[in-house]
């Protein structure tokens, strides 16, 4: 089994910064990609940023130039540095990992989600 533990959410004023972390642990063989998604009340869960093992990144247009995703492969941890935060960034932020996992049935590709961390930006 694999666990994703997120941290770093909180309340911040508009224009401020936060850094989210998500650490993956368990029977991980390798991580192919990790990403951050967010869901505001009454809205669908949307992609914020994703990074693959090689370092290639992709961002939602709404966060380009303000957010930076990075990954520490040795620690199986992904980070999201969020600068110039706006009230519309308020949401629950979820971490997702696409990885290869060792199970009794063998090696397989699986997807896991974190429990979510609240980010609230006050205007």
Could you characterize the architecture of this molecule?
The protein is elongated. The protein has strands at 2-7, 10-13, 18-26, 28-39, 46-52, 57-59, 67-72, 77-82, 91-103, 106-113, 117-122. The protein is built from no helices and eleven strands. With 123 residues, the protein is mainly β. Helix content is 0%, strand content 65%.
Counting DSSP H or I runs of 4 or more residues, the number of helices is: 0
The structural class is mainly beta
Number of E-type strands: 11
Q: Could you spell the SSE succession in H and E letters?
A: EEEEEEEEEEE
What is the overall silhouette? elongated
Largest pleated sheet: 7 strands, mixed
Share of residues in strands: over 45%
Radius of gyration: 15 Å
Helix content: under 10%
- Kindly report how far apart the N and C termini lie: 40 Å
Mean pLDDT: 96
Low-confidence stretches: none
